[in-house]
Amino acid sequence: MIELRNVSKRYGNKKVIDSISLTIPRGRITSFIGPNGAGKSTLLSLMSRLLAKDSGEILIDGQEIGQAKSNELAKKVSILKQSNHLHIRLKVKELVSFGRFPYSQGRLSPEDWKHVEKAMEYMELEDLQDKYLDQLSGGQRQRAFIAMVLAQDTDYIFLDEPLNNLDMKHSVQIMKMLRKLADDLRKTIVLVLHDINFASCYSDYIVALKDGKVVKAGSTGEMIDAEVLKYVFEMDIRIQKFDQHKVSIYYL
Questions:
Q1: Which residues does residue 11 pair with via DSSP β-bridges, in sequence order?
Q2: Count of CB atoms within 10 A of residue 199's CB?
Q3: Is 247 helix (H, G, I), strand (E, B) or coil?
């Protein structure tokens, strides 16, 4: 379980995360939604300790992350940021193998390579494993970075807009795979998503942020609501039910 207690972060005079308290359940998918500048990506970075919070506490399984050793935290929490820039030329298989570094320290065992191969299989990268990243499309590179995170094999997976640059097929593939990781392996997955319909169809819980604050948090059924979404996004959004899912109509 992840607990945030009065967490704040400021850039200069602007408070981008404003005294957020939140509980994120274990073994489920939680999606952060909200307009640009709401603080979603910043909050995810604070939870993974990529950014230092100014105040408050963030506890994962009861331990304050500031007290955890970096190598031990990397075995528990993995994160994929929205933008990934590498200044070295790597093949797909080499990139995915980086996910094993907390365990292997660069000397991969046969067990490490099994995790690498399984992650590439999840992301349908077997035929691309010997290609260099700069030879791939944007969507193929995104799948390679997600495979690296999967190879890390952590209990907690944080993904910042993981569907960027992906076509419909691979977006659905990734969300189904994340759903399977949560259901079968009890992974705790936290996503930043812009498409609220993906959040609706694949999440257990949704956290809506606006201006650095949590507007509302709850089950998917509670959150995919016309009044809630109108307050968050400042636009009229119609909700229709399709099978067991609520779908938001905001294109018209």
A1: 14
A2: 26
A3: strand
Alpha-carbon distance of 183 to 24, in angstroms, equals 16
CA 234, CA 54: separation in Å to the nearest integer? 29
Query: Encoding tokens for residue 25?
Result: 């359940």
- Backbone CA torsion sign across 98, 167, 163, 14: positive
Task: Give the tokens for residue 135.
Answer: 């030879």
Q: What predicted TM-score, i.e. pTM, was given to this entire model?
A: 0.91
- Give rounded-to-5 percent helix, strand, coil for the chain: 40, 30, 30
Order of strands across the sheet that contains 14-24: 14-24, 2-11, 55-60, 63-64
- 125-155 pLDDT, tens digit per residue, is 999 999 999 998 888 888 899 899 999 999 9
Which residues have C-beta within 8 Å of that of residue 180, sequence separation ≥ 6?
A: none
**Contact criterion met (CB below 8 Å) for 72 and 156:** no
Rounded Cα distance between 183 and 174, Å, is: 14
